[in-house]
Amino acid sequence: MAKVSSQELGSQPIGKLLIKQAVPASIGILVMSLNILVDTIFVGNWIGPTAIAAINVVLPVSFFIAALGMAIGVGGSSIISRALGADNSIKALKTFGNQITLTALITVVFVIFGLWYIDDLIPAFGGKGTIFEPAKVYYKIVLYGVPVLALCMMGNTVIRAEGKPKFAMYAMMFPSVGNLLLDVLFIKVFDFGMAGAAWATTGSYILCFLFILWFFLSKNSELKLNVNRFGLDLPIVKEISSLGFVTLSRQAIVSVTYLLMNNILFDLGGETSVTAYAIVGRMLMFALFPVYGITQGFLPIAGFNYGAEKYKRVRDSIITAIKYAALLATVVFIFLMIFPDAITKLFTQDSDVLRETPPAMRWVFAATPIVAVQLIGAAYFQAVGKAIPALLLTLTRQGIFFIPLILILPKYYGEIGVWMSFPISDVLSTIVTAYFLDREVKLKLLPKVTK
Predict the structure, then answer these.
(1) Rounded to an integer, what distance in angstroms lies between the CA atom of residue 67 and that of residue 86?
(2) d(C-alpha 381, C-alpha 299), whole Å
(3) Chain-centre distance of CA 360, in angstroms?
(4) 87 in helix, strand or coil?
(5) Nearest-angstrom CA–CA distance, 29 and 172
(6) DSSP string, 387-409
(7) CA dihedral 54, 59, 60, 65 (to 10 degrees)
(8) C-alpha angle with apex 433: 430 to 439, nearest 5 degrees?
(9) pLDDT digits (tens, 9 = 90+) for 179-231
(10) Which long-range contacts (CB under 8 A, 24 or more apart) does 226-234 make?
(11) Are residues 244 and 71 in contact, defined by beta-carbon separation less than 8 angstroms?
(12) pTM
């Protein structure tokens, strides 16, 4: 039965298959995003607005280390999808074993490094003034659980690569619900403050890990845990690294962006501006969940069919994914343009934050309807194993365009220049991605389709 499930990626109608893959991914991302969103609401209302800023300072460090697991997961999953498409189960199993070893070794090293330089990293990422102490409390506790989170993120992408989107969804839902319950217990009932918020987050990572471990030990998975596969295989490690570097680079850029944004906004508007960015950042994670779900659902479909040399299905999956994602992104755009004030009030009643956040939110999401092209385009190159174009296109949005903009525009427009940088970078990166994706389809896919 498991084998049939993965082979469906190459046989079912693209539209039906994309929905089947994307809906569980979207629900999983929604629940995870709601977890982050509600967690921030709890922290803002039960601890205070400074606590929101403190968590925002810690996120880039913990997320970067956890992203190592995601990078290894996405890189390896691209190999696994293509290997399953080519009916090469041995390579798929070897890749999975190497993913586990790499994730465990690398993340533990980075956590040790992150704890050793704690007093330098927190201020560097904007944890200054009254933000420093609550950020330090949260940072220390959460970082202990980050290797577990990295293994979860790696395992989740592998589950999806097997063609088991529902289990990937469950892996995201259980810890999210658990985190909210632990928030109520540790923050509201026991009044542990920032430590309570941190332990609730770490506890949710453990719940996720236990579920994923159960999946790979059960009959649901084609990729069984086998210690004989844990030994590193250099060719596989190189392939995982080249493809995973795309995801890692994206997350590294996100961390650099947080560092720059927190510091620039702190200098321009103090704790209030950092808090406003934290709220907008949560909405960036939450509001686009259906678009990210389409992207996640698209990856194994494109990878499997490319590996199986079904190039017409690859092209059809690109077109369908962009159409679905663009429609959903437009709905998100309309909602955020109409209700930014009501959304902000969910997080805090602080008058300064309520005044600053809504206009910032409108600027940040101004180009949302077109981001589907950029996300799907970059994901395509990663899915089919083309690491360099995937890397370059991934970096255009938040690296090549965004970072220079936030360094230049505030000098002329002040704080509004920071928020203007978001839609400008979205437009520029979408134009570049559209060009390269169109070129790839015309030169690489269409000739093979028409043979």
Answers:
(1) 28
(2) 10
(3) 22
(4) coil
(5) 7
(6) HHHHHHHHHIIIIIIHHHHHHHH
(7) 140
(8) 140
(9) 888 888 998 888 888 888 889 888 888 888 999 889 888 877 777 777 777 88
(10) 226/93, 226/97, 228/97, 229/93, 229/94, 229/96, 229/97, 229/98, 230/97, 230/98, 230/100, 230/101, 231/97, 231/101, 232/98, 232/101, 232/102, 233/94, 233/98
(11) yes
(12) 0.69
Q: What is the tens place of the pLDDT at every residue in 236-275?
A: 888 888 777 767 777 778 778 878 888 899 888 888 888 8
**Tokens standing for 47?**
């601890």
Token pair in block for residue 74? 């996405």
Distances (CA, A) of 317 to 34, 126, 263, 320: 28, 41, 41, 5
Lookup: tokens for 354? 């309520």
What single-letter amino acid sits at 249?
Answer: S
Question: What are the structure tokens assigned to 187, written together?
Answer: 């923050």
pLDDT digits (tens, 9 = 90+) for 60-84: 777 777 777 778 888 888 788 778 7
Q: What is the pLDDT of residue 27?
A: 75
Question: Which residues neighbour 311 within 8 Å (Cβ) at sequence distance 6 or greater?
Answer: 305, 445, 448, 449
CA distances (Å), origin 58, targets 129, 187, 276, 283, 444: 15, 18, 16, 17, 43
For 158-174, b/e burial (b = at least 16 CB within 10 A) is bbbbbbbbbbbbbbbbb
Long-range contacts: 310-313, Cβ < 8 Å, 24+?
Answer: 310/10, 311/445, 311/448, 311/449, 312/449, 313/10, 313/14
Rounded-to-integer distance, Cα 67 and Cα 65, Å = 5
Give CA–CA dist 246/408, Å, rounded.
Answer: 26
278, 56 Cβ separation under 8 angstroms: yes
Assigned token pair, 231? 């030994």
